[in-house]
Amino acid sequence: MTEIFYSLGWVNRIITGTISRMLAVPIFYHLFWRHPFPSKKPKVNTGKMKKLHQKMELTQKKIEEIEPLIKKNKDYIDYLKFSAQIAKFYANKNLYSVKISKLLEETPIPAKNKKEAISLISELREDFKNIKEIYSDLWLRCAKPDSLKRLLPYYDWLDYLYKKKLEEIENNISWTNPFLESEWIGYPEKKLHQDYRYFRKTFAISNQKIKKAFLQGISNHYMKVSINGSELGEVFSRFTLAVRPIDERVKVFDITEHLKKENVITVEAANFVDDINSINIYAEIYFENGEKQIIKSDGSWKTYKREIPSWKEIGFDDSLWEQIKSYGVPPEFNGEITRPYFLDNWPSRTTYMFGTRGYFKNFIPQVLLPLLGKYLKSIGA
C-alpha cells in the first residue's frame, strides 16, 4: 500500500524519505479529506490519478486471486481490500472534481451538463457511503467504538460538501469559495514572541429580531474571547498530531443572548512558543426576516500590546490603539480552512497540516537544535 501514502508527489517523497515518515499519513489525510472543489479549476495531476486508479484496480484483482489460497489470518485480506478501495476513491475524487468543474464552466449551465455532474457526484456519494460502512465494520473488529464516533464525522463532512455542491448545481451556481473569508490578524510587529496581544472590534446590529447568532474563533496558539464584557471561552489551536487538540482547535460560541444594539468583541491572545501572534474570528447573525449579518476579523479591528482597564467595554476609547496587521485569508496563513455552516452544525474544518509552517520555523530551531547541541557536546563533537 506504499503507493497510497508515499507516492503523492515529489515534495512528499522528499518529506517521507528524508525528514519523517510519520508525516506521510497526515499528508494523505489532508489530501483525502480536502474539499473536493477548492478552486474553480482544481489543480490535479490527472495522469498520476489515472495511474493510481489503474494500480488499485489491479491490486483488487490480485487480492481476489490470492484470497482463496490464504489459510491463516484471512481477516487481514479485508483490510487490504479496504486500502485499495479508499485509494481508488481518492483517485476518482480528484478526477471527478476536474470533470465536474469543466461541466459547470458555461453560464448558464447546460441541462445535459447539470445532469452529468449530478450523476458523477451521486456516484461518488454512493461509493463513499459504502466505504464508510466498511470502515466502521473493520474498525469495530479491532478497536473500541468510542474513537470511531470521533472519526465518522469526517465521512459525514465530505458527504455534506458533495450535498452542498448538488444544491449549487440545482441553483445554477458553478462554484463558490469554500474557504473561510475572515482574515488572520495580528499586532503590527516583526518580532516573534509569547507575549499577550489585545484585539477589539465594535459593531452595531439592526432592530430586526435575531433568530440565532454564532461566533467562531481560531487562534495561532491561544486566545480568550469575550463579547460585551462576557467571556465566551478559550481557544487552543496549534500544530499537533494529537487527537484532542485537533478536535478543539476551532471553537464555536452561541452569542444569541449576548447581543445588543451596540456590541464589542474582545480577544486576548498569546503563543506557546515564539511565533506570530494572530487570531481569526468569524461570526454570523441570522435575523427572523431571513437577512444575515457577518462580522469577521479584517482591517477594521484595533489592537494593542498592553492590557488597559475597561478595554472590554463598548464605550472604551480605542482611538490610540493601532490598526491590525493582516496575514491574509485562508489558505494564505495556517493552510486551508473551510467556511462554517453554523445552522447545519458544521464549524470550519482545518487540515492535518494546520500550523506546520510555524512549527518547523520556530519549534525546531528553539527545541531540537539546542538538544542536538547538547548531545554533540556530550560526545565531544
What are the defining features of this structure?
381 residues; alpha+beta; 2 domains; six-stranded antiparallel beta sheet; 12 strands; 43% helix; disordered N terminus
Q: What's the SSE blueprint?
A:
Blueprint: H1 2-6, H2 10-19, H3 24-33, H4 46-66, H5 75-103, H6 111-142, H7 145-170, E1 185-186, E2 197-204, E3 210-219, E4 222-227, E5 230-236, H8 243-248, E6 251-254, E7 262-270, E8 278-287, E9 292-296, E10 302-304, E11 322-323, E12 325-326, H9 356-378
Antiparallel strand pairs: 1-8, 1-12, 2-7, 2-10, 3-6, 3-8, 4-5, 4-7, 8-9, 10-11
The CATH superfamily title of the largest domain:
Galactose-binding domain-like
Number of domains: 2
Reported for the largest beta sheet, the result is: 6 strands, antiparallel
Rg computed from alpha carbons, rounded to a whole number of angstroms: 24 Å
CATH architecture of the largest domain: Sandwich
CATH class of the largest domain: Mainly Beta
The CATH topology of the largest domain:
Jelly Rolls
User: Hey, roughly how much beta strand do the residues contain?
Assistant: 15-25%
Task: Tell me the span between the first and last alpha carbons.
Answer: 41 Å
Say how many strands there are: 12
Helix content: 40-55%
* Contiguous helical run count: 9
Extract low-pLDDT stretches.
Answer: 1-7
Shape: globular
Order of helices and strands: HHHHHHHEEEEEHEEEEEEEH
Q: Quick check: average pLDDT?
A: 89
Based on secondary structure, the structural category is: alpha+beta
Describe this protein's structure.
With 381 residues, this protein is an alpha+beta fold. The protein has 2 domains: 34-170, no CATH class; 185-363, Jelly Rolls, CATH 2.60.120.260. Helices cover 43% and strands 18% of the residues. The chain contains 9 helices and 12 strands. The protein has helices at residues 2-6, 10-19, 24-33, 46-66, 75-103, 111-142, 145-170, 243-248, 356-378; strands at 185-186, 197-204, 210-219, 222-227, 230-236, 251-254, 262-270, 278-287, 292-296, 302-304, 322-323, 325-326. The strands form 2 sheets. Strands 1, 3, 6, 8, 9 and 12 form a 6-stranded antiparallel sheet that branches. It has a 6-stranded antiparallel sheet with strand order 5-4-7-2-10-11, with no helix packed on it. β8 and β9 form a beta hairpin. α5 runs antiparallel to α6 (111-142) and α6 packs antiparallel against α7. The protein is globular and about 75 Å long. Mean pLDDT is 89; it is low at 1-7.
